[in-house]
Structures are given as C-alpha cells and as structure tokens.
Amino acid sequence: IKIAVLLSGGGTNLQSLIDAIELGKIPGQISVIISNKKEAFGLKRGEKHGIETMVLDKNTYGCKEKRDKVLVETLLEKKIDLIVLAGYLAILSSNVIEKYKNRIINIHPSLIPSFCGDGYYGEKVHQAVLQRGVKVTGATVHFVNEITDGGPIILQETVAVAIDDDVKTLQEKVLEIEHKILPLAVKLFAEDRLEVVENRVKIH
Ligand code: GRF
C-alpha cells in the first residue's frame, strides 16, 4: 500500500514507521511526507531515506481550505491508500476525512477518551496526566473521523505513571509505546486485517 505521513514536529513516530518498513515488517511504502511546518525535523528524516517531502503551509495558500484542497489533490494524484498523522498539529478539513474514511490513522499520547480533544496535544497531555494523578497512562492509535480524537480505536497500550515521573520522563515512556503500536496498526491495515464495526475495530 502507498502511505502518506503528515507531521508537524520531530518525527520519531515517522522514524518508527520508516524502520519497520525497511525491516520488511510492513507491506507498504511511504510515498510522501507532508508537513505544515517547513522547519519540521521529520522532513529531514524522510529526506535521509530518499522519501519525497512536501510543505503545505496554510500561509502559502492563504487559508486552511485552499491548503487542504491541494492536500487532497496531492493524495489522490499519488494514489495514497493510507494517511498517517504522526504528530500533525493542523485539523484536517472534512473533505479530506470524507474522501479517506477509515483510511486515516492518528497516534495520540494518552488512553483515549482520557486527556484528548481540543487543547490536549504534545506535552499538554502529559501535564494533564500528572495533574490528575492517574496511575496508568499510555497511547492510542485510532482512525480519524470528524470528531477530534473521536474515531474508532485500533490499538492501545498502557504504561504505569511513577510518583517521580515528570512530563519529560512520562513523554519518553509513552513515545516508546507509540513507536510500537503505530507501526503495528499500519501493518494490520496494510494486511487488510482491520474491520470497523460501528465505532469498534475488529482485528482479523
Ligand atoms: C507524539 O507524542 C504523538 O503522540 C503526538 O505528537 C507527538 C509526535 O511526536 N501526536 P514525533 O514528532 O513523532 O516525535
């Protein structure tokens, strides 16, 4: 399958996908890496592996809608089968979500539905986890629908929150899980083993 990865930051999740593909674990290839930030280090990671990269910054296109129109055109022209959001901090417009129903996967650094939705991204998630004093957190891979972080959940994995954890140590623990479950979810999708039944995902 042909994969497009959208990101805005460092791209360690992208790196975990690149590594899994290069180890032959996923029957697919990353055709393009698209960022809304020209300085995203994830773009450099892709370039190092000879993967095409693009910057679609809403300022260049004047507004989100125009940018997303170019995004959809690019995805369709490249015959992309799966979009992976790996730390993509722009909200996808509804026409992208409609065209790619149950073919957009997102990774979120908490156990959805906890600590997700508007305002919960990056370190803010781990801050909220520490503030609430939960004993377990983790990561979630889910399909993207029009509700932010509201789509069918594909995989989740937990990690214990230690009393001496801070945002940095917690983020590190959760990222380790993200780097496991994201490639696994993409592999399952590529092997056509995911079936969405109402808002639940069956793994065959
Ligand atoms: C990860 O924590 C991911 O869960 C969230 O954004 C972060 C991306 O990190 N969506 P990286 O750019 O993949 O290192």
TrEMBL record:
The keyword Isomerase does not apply. Residues 2-186 form the Formyl transferase N-terminal domain. Pathway: Purine metabolism; IMP biosynthesis via de novo pathway; N(2)-formyl-N(1)-(5-phospho-D-ribosyl)glycinamide from N(1)-(5-phospho-D-ribosyl)glycinamide (10-formyl THF route): step 1/1. The record marks 149 as: Raises pKa of active site His. N(1)-(5-phospho-beta-D-ribosyl)glycinamide binds at residues 11-13. The keyword Phosphoprotein does not apply. GO terms for biological process: 'de novo' IMP biosynthetic process. (6R)-10-formyltetrahydrofolate binds at residues 67, 106. Gene3D superfamilies: Formyl transferase, N-terminal domain. One of its GO terms (cellular component) is cytosol. Its EC number is 2.1.2.2. Keywords: Purine biosynthesis, Transferase. It catalyses: N(1)-(5-phospho-beta-D-ribosyl)glycinamide + (6R)-10-formyltetrahydrofolate = N(2)-formyl-N(1)-(5-phospho-beta-D-ribosyl)glycinamide + (6S)-5,6,7,8-tetrahydrofolate + H(+). Pfam families: Formyl_trans_N. It is an enzyme of class 2 (transferase). GO terms for molecular function: phosphoribosylglycinamide formyltransferase activity. InterPro entries: Formyl_transf_N, Formyl_transf_N_sf, GART. The active site is at residue 108. Belongs to the GART family. PANTHER family: PHOSPHORIBOSYLGLYCINAMIDE FORMYLTRANSFERASE (PTHR43369). Catalyzes the transfer of a formyl group from 10-formyltetrahydrofolate to 5-phospho-ribosyl-glycinamide (GAR), producing 5-phospho-ribosyl-N-formylglycinamide (FGAR) and tetrahydrofolate. This is Phosphoribosylglycinamide formyltransferase. It comes from Natronincola ferrireducens.
